[in-house]
């Protein structure tokens, strides 16, 4: 478990993180979200001990963040980078050994990962000779080779084609099933909905939203529904237990987006509509993470 | 600690394994020696590449009839025709120069199609003066051997009085070795310092730095790089020194063997040809002595002492400067931006190397020389000059201590800028900005 308590980080002129506290459950996939400049990278750098907070503390499994944690964390920064002139295999070994692996162990695991991601024939190639996707795969290997218990992935799918993005996603899920806690920072909200158990949303250095994805989504429900029926367009007056937000015609169907009035229920809506039309569909509009993100940030 | 070793290893091997390293290491001493041999050879035989000049001589005085001997570079032809006729035909003739000697010996002129070079003018002047001199001496009834005795030049031998007795001071060798060492240090500090800067910049631009400092501390990465590059420089210098010494020894042995052989041959030849010519034998002996003196000077260089000091001042001078270079590399986003910071760094080096050719060499014990050899930013160059003339042990020790302290301080200061700089992108680094970074807490 990663506990972030009251972190403050001040840079000359502005406050990158202002009293941010987040709990990240062990073995879960956690989404760290926020617009550009929200403070995500600052927070990630603090967890990685690249920089230190001005105040506040971070506990990992109850122990204050210290040097021994470096070997337990794998970090994939948003801006990828490897030595261009260095051979890829050599480079992975170097990075693995910096994380504390022995030479033999590093070699064994690197071979395993290169085979798994089908890049073993590239072992002796220099980075500058590889395609972008190939470089990203190598970088991913460098991130996970020391079997970290905490994986911090900043936009892990950028630069991958859909096929390779799927491969990497499955690798991430597999690592998660083996027990790794994953902190996942991205702007792609559909992958947040697909992967994350909980999220925290940062904006301008403040935490503005935090919790389980399902719970957050349900708090953003606002009694809006989509109703579809056959027949001609109707006009609803104030007798209806709802207000119409939008209405349009698709072929023979009418679709209306409606908001149920405060002291009414879905049943009232059905009750009201049944005598009038032939109902096709009535479903709740649950906000997407994308909607929530935009709504929360622009508040 | 283990991680620093890993970083040093990578920095070292990635450079030493390059082909360019091997090429430079083995080619530079060869080129160096070839270049110096060529310079010395050309200085001794300036005419080797020039062709024979044909000189037409009109001698109205009659002093020089058959006295101007043709040589490898000049061929004299006497012409008895009238000066005016010869002059008007000169441009059409295939002579290169026309030498006109009027009866009065004043207003001697040398004409050429192009401007006569200083070299040839001087040579002719010399020859004419010699001939004229012996003429005049003969006119005054003065024996030329008496004059030669009277003109014997006096030379001073610089000696140094020490506890162990007096010894030859070998000032010439001191000058040469001092200058070469100082210049090598100057070059090396810039060369390897810039390599550190480039390395830091490469890591920053390729963004690998963020991955690495999630594993090690910025200070470890910086020190690893500096030490790694420093070891590369050290390896290169040790190889250069070994190669140069063995090459020079080889060449030296060959040279002495060859030379002494020709000398003996010459002596026997001459003494055979003109038996009893004491003056010639003396001249040859003199010649021999000069040559021995040069070898003596070379042997007088305290090789171990000089090499040890050189390696020390190179290593710590490099560590000091490369820390500053690392800070610069971390502060900028591209190599073009480094310019504004390069000037203040290189200034003390340029200042010292310029002074060392004049002030320090001429007056190695002045207080300016003393202070330059104490200040860490200038001491690696200044001290290399001074030690050739003898420096009290306490001064050497103090200078070395100050250099090490200076290195520790600069490293600490540079690391404070480095740790912030490597993570800053797109921010224009000004001195004010650097000062701000320096003040940041952890």
Biggest interface, residues from each chain: A-B, 27 and 22 residues
Q: Strand-and-helix sequence of chain A, N→C?
A: EEEHEEEHHHEHEHEEHEEEHEH
- Kindly report the oligomeric state of this protein: heterodimer
Number of strands of chain A: 14
* Rg of chain A: 25 Å
Distance N to C terminus of chain B: 20 Å
User: Tell me, what is the CATH class of the largest domain in chain A?
Assistant: Alpha Beta
Mean pLDDT of chain A: 89
Please list the strands of the largest sheet of chain B in the order they lie side by side. 2-1-3-4
| Number of helical stretches of at least 4 residues of chain B | 15
Describe the structure.
The complex is a heterodimer of chains A (299) and B (442). Chain A is an alpha/beta fold and 299 residues long. Chain A is 31% helix and 31% strand. Chain A has a 6-stranded mixed β-sheet, with helices on both faces. In chain A, strands 2-1-4-5 form a 4-stranded antiparallel β-sheet, with helices on one face. A 4-stranded antiparallel β-sheet of chain A has the order 12-13-11-14. Chain B is α/β, with parallel strands linked by helices and 442 residues long. Chain B folds into 2 domains: 2-36 and 173-439, no CATH class; 53-141, Periplasmic binding protein-like II (D-Maltodextrin-Binding Protein, domain 2, 3-Layer(aba) Sandwich). Helix content of chain B is 68%, strand content 7%. In chain B, helix 6 (171-205) packs parallel to helix 10 (303-331) and helix 8 crosses helix 14 (393-421). Chain B is elongated, with a radius of gyration of 31 Å. The model of chain B has no long low-confidence stretch (mean pLDDT 80). The interface between A and B is medium-sized, with 27 and 22 residues.
């Amino acid at each position: 478990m990663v506990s972030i308590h009251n972190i403050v980080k001040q840079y000359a002129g502005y406050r990158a993180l202002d009293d941010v506290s987040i709990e990240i459950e062990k073995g879960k996939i956690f989404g760290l979200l926020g617009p550009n400049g929200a403070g995500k990278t600052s927070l990630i750098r603090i967890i990685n001990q690249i920089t230190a907070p001005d105040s506040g503390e971070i506990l990992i499994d109850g122990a204050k963040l210290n040097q021994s944690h470096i070997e337990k964390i794998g970090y994939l920064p948003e801006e990828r980078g490897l030595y261009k002139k260095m051979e890829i295999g050599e480079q992975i070994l170097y990075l693995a050994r910096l994380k504390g692996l022995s030479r033999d162990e590093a070699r064994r695991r690197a071979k395993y990962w290169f085979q798994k991601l089908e890049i073993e024939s590239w072992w002796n190639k220099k980075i500058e000779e590889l395609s972008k996707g190939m470089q990203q795969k190598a970088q991913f290997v460098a991130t996970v080779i020391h079997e970290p218990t905490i994986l911090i992935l900043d936009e892990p799918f950028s630069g991958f084609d859909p096929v390779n993005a799927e491969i990497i996603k499955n690798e991430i899920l597999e690592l998660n099933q083996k027990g790794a806690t994953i902190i996942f920072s991205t702007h792609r909200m559909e992958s947040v909905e697909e992967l994350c158990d909980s999220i925290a949303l940062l904006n301008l250095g403040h935490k503005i939203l935090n919790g389980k994805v399902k719970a957050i989504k349900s708090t953003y429900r606002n009694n809006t529904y989509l109703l579809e029926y056959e027949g001609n367009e109707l006009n609803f007056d104030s007798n209806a237990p709802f207000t119409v937000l939008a209405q349009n015609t698709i072929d023979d169907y009418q679709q209306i987006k409606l908001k149920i009035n405060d002291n009414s229920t879905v049943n009232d809506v059905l009750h009201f509509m049944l005598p009038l039309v032939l109902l096709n569909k009535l479903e709740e509009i649950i906000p997407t993470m994308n909607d929530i993100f935009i709504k929360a940030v622009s508040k | 600690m283990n991680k620093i070793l890993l970083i040093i290893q990578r920095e070292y091997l990635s450079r030493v394994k390059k082909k360019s390293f091997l090429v430079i290491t083995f080619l530079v001493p060869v080129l160096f020696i070839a270049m110096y041999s060529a310079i010395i050879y050309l200085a001794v035989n300036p005419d080797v590449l020039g062709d024979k000049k044909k000189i037409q001589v009109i001698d109205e005085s009659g002093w020089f009839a058959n006295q101007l001997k043709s040589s490898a570079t000049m061929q004299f032809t006497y012409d008895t025709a009238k000066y005016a006729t010869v002059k008007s035909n000169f441009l059409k003739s295939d002579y290169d120069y026309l030498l006109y000697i009027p009866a009065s010996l004043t207003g001697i002129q040398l004409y050429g199609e192009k401007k006569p070079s200083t070299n040839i003018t001087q040579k002719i002047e010399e020859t004419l003066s010699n001939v004229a001199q012996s003429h005049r001496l003969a006119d005054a009834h003065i024996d030329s051997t008496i004059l030669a005795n009277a003109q014997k030049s006096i030379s001073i031998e610089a000696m140094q009085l020490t506890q162990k007795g007096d010894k030859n001071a070998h000032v010439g060798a001191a000058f040469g070795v001092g200058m070469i060492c100082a210049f090598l240090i100057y070059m090396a500090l810039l060369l390897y310092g810039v390599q550190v800067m480039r390395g830091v910049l490469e890591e920053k631009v390729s963004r690998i730095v963020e991955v690495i400092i999630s594993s090690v501390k910025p200070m470890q990465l910086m020190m690893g790089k500096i030490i790694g590059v420093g070891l590369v420089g050290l390896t290169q210098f040790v190889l250069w020194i070994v190669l140069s010494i063995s090459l020079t020894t080889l060449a030296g042995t060959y040279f002495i063997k060859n030379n002494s052989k020709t000398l003996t041959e010459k002596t026997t030849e001459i003494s055979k040809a003109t038996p009893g010519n004491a003056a010639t034998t003396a001249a040859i002996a003199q010649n021999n002595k000069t040559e021995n003196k040069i070898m003596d000077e070379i042997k007088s260089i305290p090789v171990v002492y000089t090499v040890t000091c050189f390696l020390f001042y190179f290593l710590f001078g490099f560590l000091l400067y490369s820390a500053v270079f690392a800070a610069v590399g971390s502060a900028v986003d591209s190599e073009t931006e480094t310019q504004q910071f390069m000037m203040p760094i290189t200034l003390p080096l340029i200042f010292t190397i310029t002074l060392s050719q004049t002030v320090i060499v001429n007056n190695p014990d002045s207080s300016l020389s003393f202070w330059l050899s104490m200040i860490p930013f200038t001491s690696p160059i200044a001290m290399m000059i001074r030690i050739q003339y003898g420096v009290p042990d306490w001064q050497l020790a103090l200078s070395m201590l100050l250099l090490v302290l200076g290195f520790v301080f600069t490293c600490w200061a540079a690391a404070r800028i480095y740790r912030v700089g490597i993570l800053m992108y797109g921010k224009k680094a000004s001195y004010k900005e650097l000062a701000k970074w320096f003040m940041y807490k952890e």
